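In this supplementary section we document a worked example of the pipeline. Step one takes a protein sequence of length 333 as its only input; no multiple sequence alignment statistics are reported here. Step two produces a three-dimensional model, which step three serialises into structure tokens for compact storage. The input and output of this example are shown verbatim.
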Amino acid sequence: YNKISKQSAYNSIAAGYVAGITGLLIGHPLDSMKVLLQTQAAAQSTGPTAPKAALQLPTNNNGPNARQIRTNTTAVATELVTPTQRSFLSLYKGIHIPLMTVGVMQSLNFVLYDSFRRLLYQNDLKNNQSSGSQSAAGDGNYLWDDSLTNVAIASGTAGAFISLITSPMQVLKTKQQVMLWDTRTALRETMRNGGLRNFFTGFGAHLYCDTIGRAVYFASYECMKRHLREHYHDGSKNSDVINRMISAAASGMMCWFVIFPADVVRCKVYHHVTTNPGSEISSTEMIQKMFRESNGSLRPFMRGFGITVARAGPVAAAVLPVYDLTLEWLRGM
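The serialised model returned by step three reads:
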């Protein structure tokens, strides 16, 4: 059971797919609100024409593309000033790409995560056997008996691999949310203003979120889940599910507390290259720019934190328990 097999991979893929779709449907509207709040500062003003200046429209005002950028930028400036006035359905803008890919991406993420956990657990068993020590539960069950260090390493490593694929998806999703573009327009404008390289803009901040964030997320979830199971589990199935949901919600909020400033930087970078076609800015340069414009204040790095934590709780409370329970159900078939 603790070893990697074709069946274990299939189970992880299926469980990850179900968990990914569940989390997306619950969390995307709040994710849109988060992005709008994080990029709101670029459009804040006291006058009706100031948002255009704040967003730095391109100086070349000729051609249909320039008109399209001006139109969308004006629209987003209005939306960014009053993001809560958007319709509920408009908050699902940008869901098309994640809806087509999130199930596959979560499947890939979880199969890598699960495989790395199994490999690390098997390595620990071999080391224990070679040193003559015995586990209290024999070979045990890697889902409950592996170390939290293994969980953090496995999830962080899986996140590093996945970040190469999720970076282009994150760029496109954010541009759709901010500029109200459809998928085709987001793809076209991204390619036109930087080529393939533009899909990896802000990659430093993105890599941090996908590695450190996942390590904190999964390790804290396993830690709390095991603690609650040991001390507060009454033996019923409902109690186990509730404990998992509480653990997942808390770990999701803890994860965002750790990575949120990097996520703000990431969104700011995407916003900058979108509203300033042809320009480039790194994550480090954006951090310096934010500090300079705020006179050294940390407040810009926490913009949208409340809505993000509100989103993290219910989304995480669904994703990891759904994955766990689906995986265990498939194993028992």
